[in-house]
Design brief:
- The chain is an alpha/beta fold and 324 residues long.
- Helix content is 35%, strand content 21%.
- The protein is globular, with a radius of gyration of 19 Å.
- The two termini are 34 Å apart.
């Protein structure tokens, strides 16, 4: 039986791909490919995943005895059941999936970071308003229709915080769920007043005369954690060697991807795995890759989520964060 695995959608260039895996398989990491152990990892088909694809191609995982299969994700929180069912060994996704899993005490743990936004300079996403909306600053998003790719996650939470910080009333924002690739057309049609989008859409919208309003991550949580690496507590206890080997390979992979000397290889991974025009793949803004978790960033995000009623209560970060 084929089964789609899905992850929370992140601020990134989203491509409509669907990943399948054989859910009849017992434990994916039990099998071997020659001397290599098979490992299944769910990740979104977005530009950020180029670090993982590139690290695999560079032989970083094989060096540690791992043959990693990346299962493209589609969006949502279904990666958590896939982890709990043993269909996958690890997943890479935004923090709200593990936040909500912890609130239900499902035994999901975050073992490392993956990507973060930039504390200063050009960030990886922004809110852009249509020129005809007349919006020029965050406070003016109050009472307007603002698109995010996924409701109840980092996009709307940080936009509300940015609006309040600028003196606006965040409770009056009318959030609309729009896929990133559809945002330019929705803005042009007047169906929304502003949209939260990553590159290349930020540049595309600004070049046609729309207005940059704010980079909400940078405005409220500079350097915000955007993607984390997760697995289950049970796996960390029953298969500690696998988790340690994978964590070590991930750490090396993210260091490799962050090294400017390897940027061409990372961008080649985008071209090899995503249907992006080559000029876009060569210029799209990549996040800051790194393995060490920023607990303060995650705690601030969770507190904002509760403040704006996206989460009912705080996750137990002592239980959830198990940095490897």
């Amino acid at each position: 039986m084929k089964k789609v695995i899905a992850l929370g959608l992140i601020a990134a260039t989203a491509i409509a791909l669907t990943g399948c895996t054989d859910s009849d398989a017992s434990s994916p990491s039990d099998s071997t490919d020659g001397d290599l152990r098979q490992v299944r990892v769910a990740a979104l088909p977005i530009t950020e995943t180029a670090a993982l694809w590139g690290g695999i191609k560079a032989g970083i995982f094989a060096k540690r005895g791992l043959n990693v299969e990346v299962l493209p994700a589609q969006g949502g929180a279904q990666a958590i059941p896939a982890l709990l069912n043993g269909d996958i060994d690890f997943a890479i996704g935004q923090p709200f999936g593990p936040f909500r899993a912890d609130l239900q005490d499902l035994g999901v743990v975050v073992i490392g970071n993956y990507a973060s936004s930039y504390a200063e300079g050009d960030d990886i996403n922004a809110v852009v308003a249509s020129a005809k909306s007349g919006i020029t600053r965050p406070a003016e998003l109050a009472g307007r229709r603002v698109a995010v790719n996924s409701l109840g996650a980092a996009g709307d939470v940080t936009i509300m915080a940015a609006v309040e910080k600028d003196g606006g009333d965040p409770s009056t924002i009318k959030f609309v769920e729009v896929a990133f690739p559809d945002a330019p057309a929705q803005l042009e049609a007047g169906n929304i007043d502003a949209a939260w989008v990553p590159e290349p859409f930020v540049t595309q919208l600004r070049s046609r005369g729309d207005t940059f309003i704010v980079a909400p991550y940078q405005a409220v949580v500079p350097g915000l954690t955007t993607l984390t690496t997760i697995t289950t507590k049970e796996r960390t206890e029953s298969d500690a060697k696998l988790v340690d080997d994978f964590a070590a390979a991930m750490k090396e992979t993210l260091q490799w991807a962050q090294d400017p000397a390897n940027e061409a290889a990372v961008r080649q991974a985008i071209k090899d795995n995503l249907q992006l025009p080559e000029p876009v793949a060569d210029s799209v803004k990549l996040p800051e890759f790194g393995w060490d978790l920023d607990r303060t960033s995650l705690q601030t995000l969770a507190e904002l989520a509760q403040k704006y009623k996206v989460l009912d209560k705080q996750p137990n970060l002592d239980r959830l964060i198990q940095q490897k």
